[in-house]
């Protein structure tokens, strides 16, 4: 009976300590090499441990839902970067692609490629598209595809792309060429790599020799087109 009374007294004292301090408490209740705690003491221990666990569970459940959401938000996985588009400068590659669809930007870019480069190789057509997209990315030009293509339109031979101000109507006679060029336009609008012209913002055909071409650094020659980058200050 003394063993039980002493054990219960010691346990009550220990449980009155902070919960984390229990690991530092060592109880010695008897000199007997095999001390035994009877059923009443065991039941007492189980009861108090259960109370402590229930208290901890209630504390966790009391956390506000939005606080938990904020904590979990820090562990959301990062979105994987989109891999670059794979492009081949061949008609067979384009033939495997689905028909291009899109809005005004696709229409404008396809039209420019049709009237400016449909007689070029696929590589040359991509290069002309690069120039247009490089202009869209430059602060020196309008910031939209249609804005770039239509810049200066309305003043004969003062536009940026001759077909928009030569006084002739834009009529599409080669539907297959239009469909193929629309796929190039779609790829470029979707972020295809611009690796052919080294950042060129200007081009001309070999049929003309504009004065600015004597000053602008040439970056590439593809088919009948010559590509240039504006001089850096």
Automatic annotation (TrEMBL):
Annotated Pfam families: Hydrolase_2
Record carries keyword Signal: yes
Keyword Signal: yes
Keywords from the named record: Hydrolase, Signal
InterPro entries membership: Cell_wall_hydrolase_SleB, SleB_dom1
Domain of life: Bacteria
A GO MF term: hydrolase activity
Signal peptide limits: 1-23
Domain Cell wall hydrolase SleB: 119-228
Coiled coil: none
Name of the protein: Spore germination cell wall hydrolase CwlJ-like protein
Species of origin: Pacificibacter maritimus
